[in-house]
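step 3/5: co-fold with adenosine-5'-triphosphate
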Amino acid sequence: MCPTLLVLTVTDDAIAAEGVELTYADGTQAVRGVDLTVPRGEFFGFLGPNGAGKTTTIKTLVTLLRPTAGSIRVNGFDALTESRSVRETVGYMAQETSVDPELTARENLRFACDAYGVPRSDRADRIDELLELVDLADVADKKADDFSGGMQKRLDAATALVHRPPLVFLDEPTTGLDPKARNRLWEYFRRINERGTTIFLTTQYLEEADELCDRLAVILDGELVSEGSPAELKQEVGGEILDVSVEGDEGDRRTAARIARDGDIFEPSAAVDVSEEGITVTSERARSKGTDLLVALRDEGLTVTGFNVRAPTLDDVFLAITGEHVETDGADGSDTAVDSLAADGGERAEGDDRFEGGDDA
Ligand SMILES: Nc1ncnc2c1ncn2[C@@H]1O[C@H](COP(=O)(O)OP(=O)(O)OP(=O)(O)O)[C@@H](O)[C@H]1O
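step 4/5: write tokens
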């Protein structure tokens, strides 16, 4: 067992945060009164639209930013007064890759071992084990510059784990990767979670959250608005989803939505949204009243080209909570999105991301 684990109190949650607020110097209130508890060993997902406050929250939890208000305990340590201990017991895979393209995979891991103070006698074995774990043993001595985006991400994830942290933060770790590369990372994340590591994940891909996470929280404008297991959140949507495709233009789709809303077909709490193909109705009566809707649309002269009743997905949950679908930029399957992550890193290097806090820092 890792020495740091020995000093942790077994009853402590991995994360216990209360009333966390963070206001940036320009007055932006990025995080507003967030309470979070993540038990040890959980695979926890943190979701929200762009700019909702996910990265800012993570940065306060890993002590990169000092909260304006609130209390945070991570692995049993106070993030304000014991920030060094927090940093020693967490791994952080940021949105911007930390991989140095000029170094080989092994050298990148050696560098991370230096940074995290991994004892010299443990390094060679630890590096071999991690290279094996992320399937990079064959290319250990090749420059990271030659790696695909997926390989760089796997290496980046490995560098966050050289000190065997009991808790790891993954900030959009699979953005821009093709489905195959994403699936390999999922396998890897599952493996480290099964070994007992608590995982705090943010992602743009709701199927990723659904697939991996035990529990989710949704943040909107800096506030937590929903929390539960993927199944619980789907239940909260209330009923099933009826997707109806309608021939014609947006005007026709709007007419269809009006009929679904006003036609006395569904319960008043049913939600009707205009989709790209037609309309989507979320209703307890989606199955039993679907055909009534088809008749009403036909009577209005509309042509229905498709009709499907299904269980809600996390995308429906997200739409119900935030009023928008998740934007998945860089999700075109190309590995080039790693470049855009690097560009993102440049934009962020304006001062707030430096280690600022901690009396023991
Ligand atoms: N350094 C900064 N200075 C001022 N405002 C900032 C800074 N960094 C982020 N913000 C603002 O804080 C809010 C929350 O941003 P944050 O990056 O935490 O959101 P996010 O949910 O992680 O979004 P994304 O998914 O786009 O990364 C946004 O309004 C953002 O514009």
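step 5/5: annotate
Residues 24, 26, 28, 30, 48, 50-56, 350, 352 surround adenosine-5'-triphosphate (CB under 6 Å).
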